[in-house]
Design a protein that fits this description.
It is a single chain. The protein has 9 helices and 17 strands. By secondary structure, it is α/β, with parallel strands linked by helices. Helix 4 crosses helix 9 and helix 7 packs antiparallel against helix 9. The longest helix has about 30 residues. The structure holds zinc ion. The site of zinc ion has 5 residues, from loops.
Length: about 400
């Protein structure tokens, strides 16, 4: 795995040198968008062409993050203007933009709370007529850490500062919701309520460790399309996706958890979905690179994502058993579930237990007894990221 990553990085580095400079007309920035969850905000800047950029933090006066660009035409949401401003979301209160010097333009993010840039990259689409995207991930931080980062930026040490602060982002997907209740217990308890309650408990458990950013695909009793669950995880740049469900069986004695990863048939579906939605992987960043090379890189990422999903599933099964949670025999299974189809987010679906079994239902609905489950999942996540941290730092 390490070798594959190292190889990708080498290839990117080698190819970067091959990309030549050319005389360009003025590129256009067409949109500035935000996706936020808890203490994590992703900024997406859409442009007609791949942007060269420089990012740094400023702490003098108010806290802000500055993105310097070559001179561009601002044409945000169809409005062409020399300068302007807009509303932010999450960690960003708002943004301002203008031409800065004769040859540069500047976008300023005014922060609502201290935040650090943990990741930034450009996504170049494969299809005609689709915009290039500059993606900037922000994580909340302390005032002291922000000032330190701003000082490091001034001294030109920003890369090190960023790698240290990046927390893995775990997206929890409580199954069903709203008009879709899922399975039901003989006493009328509904799956959608169990999945939400346990998702919220798991979020609290993970946030308490201070090691993770956590986002939920839903935090209330609302209906969400499967596609939107996957899209949200991808938009946020999730490092791990966990779908929570409760099983139902004809035999009321059947009980225990089972863990699903993507089946071989599902992999074909995932590939189709990726092309249908033009889900560009972060690694496919450069149009000047030969198409075949991008394809190789994308395949490597997809395979690595699959390996990571399998590794997490293999960690989770014994962790649940160790925590005292009932686990089915042959607990590791494969299916083509829609929520597992993201090509670049490691994902598993956990059937926590059988809502049709009185013992499982009692354990899943009891606030005290389901702590075992939540602790088991958290311990599996801890050991998963203990070994994945190096990979994250390279992204
Ligand atoms: Zn379900």
């Amino acid at each position: 795995m390490g070798t594959v990553r190292a190889w990708i990085i080498f290839l990117l580095w080698a190819l970067a040198g091959a990309a030549g400079a050319s005389a360009e007309p003025l590129d256009r920035v067409t949109a500035v968008r935000f996706v936020s969850a808890d203490d994590h905000t992703r900024v997406i800047i859409e442009s007609s062409n791949e942007l060269k950029y420089d990012i740094f933090s400023l702490s003098a006066g108010s806290q802000r993050i500055v993105i310097d660009l070559p001179r561009i035409r601002w044409s945000i949401d169809g409005l062409t203007a020399e300068s302007g401003s807009g509303k932010g979301s999450g960690l960003v209160a708002g943004y301002r933009y203008a031409q800065n010097t004769a040859s540069t333009s500047r976008l300023v993010l005014d922060l609502a709370a201290p935040a650090l840039v943990t990741r930034d990259y450009v996504i170049t689409p494969r299809s005609e007529g689709v915009n290039s995207r500059l993606v900037i991930d922000l994580d909340s931080t302390s005032d002291t850490a922000f000032v330190r980062a701003a000082e490091a930026d001034r001294g030109g040490h920003k890369t090190e500062a960023r790698k240290v602060v990046r927390k893995p982002l775990v997206v929890i997907d409580p199954g069903h919701g709203g008009k879709d209740p899922g399975a039901s217990a003989p006493d009328g308890t509904q799956e959608k309520d169990i999945t939400l309650a346990i998702a919220l408990a798991l979020r609290d458990e993970l946030v308490a460790t201070g090691r993770y950013d956590v986002a939920l695909t839903r935090s209330t009793d609302t209906f969400i399309e499967l596609e939107d669950r996957v899209t949200k995880a991808r938009d946020l740049g999730a490092d791990l996706f966990i779908a929570l469900h409760a099983d139902a069986g004809k035999d009321r004695d059947t009980r225990g958890a089972s863990i699903y990863t993507l089946s071989p048939e599902g992999e074909k579906r995932a590939e189709n979905l990726r092309h249908k939605n033009d889900w560009v992987l972060a690694v496919e960043t450069d149009q000047t690179r030969p198409q075949e090379v991008n394809q190789i890189l994308a395949d490597l990422v997809t395979r690595e994502t699959k390996n990571q999903s399998a590794r997490f599933a293999q960690t989770l099964a014994p962790a649940l058993a160790d925590a005292g949670w009932p686990v089915l025999e042959n607990t590791l299974r494969k299916r083509g579930f829609y929520v597992l189809l993201s090509p670049d987010v490691p994902a598993i679906l956990l059937e926590m237990g059988f809502i049709t079994n009185a013992g499982d239902e009692a354990m899943m609905t009891s606030q005290t007894r389901r702590k075992k489950l939540v602790r088991g999942i958290r311990e599996a996540i801890d050991s998963f990221f203990d070994t994945e941290t190096r990979v994250l730092a390279q992204r």
